[in-house]
Design brief:
This protein is of the alpha+beta class and 204 residues long. Helices cover 24% and strands 36% of the residues. It has helices at 23-32, 34-37, 65-76, 109-124, 152-157, and strands at residues 12-20, 42-44, 51-61, 82-92, 100-105, 137-143, 162-167, 169-178, 181-191. A 5-stranded antiparallel β-sheet has the order 2-6-5-4-7, with no helix packed on it. Strands 3-1-8-9 form a 4-stranded antiparallel β-sheet. The longest helix is centred in the middle third of the chain and has 16 residues, at 109-124.
Length: 204
């Protein structure tokens, strides 16, 4: 029998709001960062999971999925779609203490407005505000432990990648941490440019 305070994982969700990348862009990005992702000590992000996170929500009650999807749809439905440019590579927080490998996303007024609208929607749904600044990027790998891999700086300098993605929707994603790695499931998706919400509910 579960002890006091136990919460079944079936009634909790680990969520984030994101812009998903087209399959062709994911494939090109994977090829362009192959040497970087192959460095010893790097855990690469699988191609199907490459995305831009607009807001990491974290673990919440499963029942909050529907209010979050509704608020995000309402907040973004009248925002126009826009082109999003991906280019260059880098690390967080620094080369000496590198933990995250990324491809940069150009921050534009349209992207900033979208992220701000999503943040406000998440707060309206009952989630605490995020105090961290928005630093748009696509994570392509994580470094398991310090020090940084040998050859990291050279591998980053050799990355040649540029792409433009037409941003037309925001996805509310569920992330499940499994022994073989994270599994991402789209809970709902909302169209920009005044389009109707085409939410697709994940299987419970």
């Amino acid at each position: 029998m579960a002890g006091a305070g136990y919460v079944s994982p079936d009634v909790r969700s680990r969520l984030f709001a994101a812009v998903l990348l087209p399959a062709a862009v994911r494939a090109d990005l994977t090829r362009a960062t192959r040497a970087l992702r192959a460095l010893e000590g790097v855990r690469p992000v699988r191609a199907e999971q490459l995305h831009l996170t607009l807001r990491f929500i974290g673990e919440v009650d499963r029942g909050l999925e529907t209010p979050l999807a509704r608020e995000i749809a309402a907040a973004t439905a009248e925002l126009p779609g826009f082109p999003m440019r991906l280019r260059a590579a880098g690390v967080f927080p620094s080369h000496r203490r590198a933990r995250v490998l990324w491809i940069g996303v150009e921050e534009t007024p349209a992207l900033a407005a979208l992220q701000r609208s999503v943040e406000e929607a998440v707060v309206r749904a009952g989630v605490a505000p995020d105090a961290r600044p928005f630093r748009p990027h696509v994570t392509v790998g994580r470094i398991r432990r310090p020090p940084p891999p040998v050859g990291l700086a050279g591998a980053i300098a050799r990355v040649r990648f540029e792409a433009t993605v037409d941003v037309r929707r925001v996805s509310l994603m569920r992330s499940e941490l499994l022994p073989r790695g994270a599994r991402h499931t789209e809970v709902a998706a909302s169209r920009l440019a005044g389009g109707a919400d085409d939410a697709r509910r994940a299987r419970r």
